[in-house]
Fold:
Amino acid sequence: DTGFARDSAGVARVTDGSSGGGALKANYFNATSTTATSTFAGGFQAGTIASGSGLTVLQDGRVGIGTASPISGTLLDMVSGSSALRFTSNGTTVGINLVKASSGEYGTLNFYTGGTRNYFISDYADGTLRITRDAGSVNDLVIGTDGNIGIGTTTPTTKLTIQPTSSNDGLRIYGDNPLIVLNDTDSTYGGAIQFRRNNSLSWYFQQDGGGLSTNDLYLFNNVGSSANLVFSTAGNVGIATTTPWGKLSVTNTGSGPSFVVEDDTSPDSTPFIVHADGNVGIGVDTNNGQKLM
Structure:
């Protein structure tokens, strides 16, 4: 039968009737109710004499480990100088389950300093997992139901969406030779960097933007489909052409000049100018129909 016994070392045990058996042992057991006689109606303590209390169960169900006064609002309050809570399983999995009572509630893991909550991790009703700063309830990091991650936003639209809360803020990478890799697994197009204003695409860099498999780098304006600037793998630069054959190749299909060098006045009436038809003017801004040999 289950009962109390004291072993040879003076340690009290809750025994199960077997030889030396005991699922619970401590230097003392204390029923904290002043009226309880054969039950622990007012609470229960078990611990070492030196510590004063190893385990405390209060009448309202609160449990304290390392404290005889578990704080209000908690089911389990652990107080320890350097120890931690450890779960070990002989099976394949072990973990902590935070189970929501209904769809409108969520499980929360809180991080405190003293009595002040600094951060908490919650599974929200919309299915997102959020790391939130308690001061101001700022959602610093959000994982969406589609696996997208948001920093500064609760509605990430890409695998990583960053929404700064102030100007000149965003992403900064430190380190010895920091690196950003854009690796496109498509065999036709390469990685791209887009520049948007109010979520509308304006400009973008793209490797081999025309699907030519040349590994050239293109700069596009989203107004048109032709590249505005091309850097070829041969080291040539093309303006309005995707096939630069000189170190600088300019294709001009309009009526304006192809190349202009001015002084500190713009427009300059005495520039060095190359017109669209190939004529050159030095000190004049009009096309005099002359070539320069």
Q: What stands out?
A: The longest strand covers residues 116-123. The two ends are 115 Å apart (CA to CA). DSSP finds no helices and 23 strands in the chain. The mean pLDDT is 78.
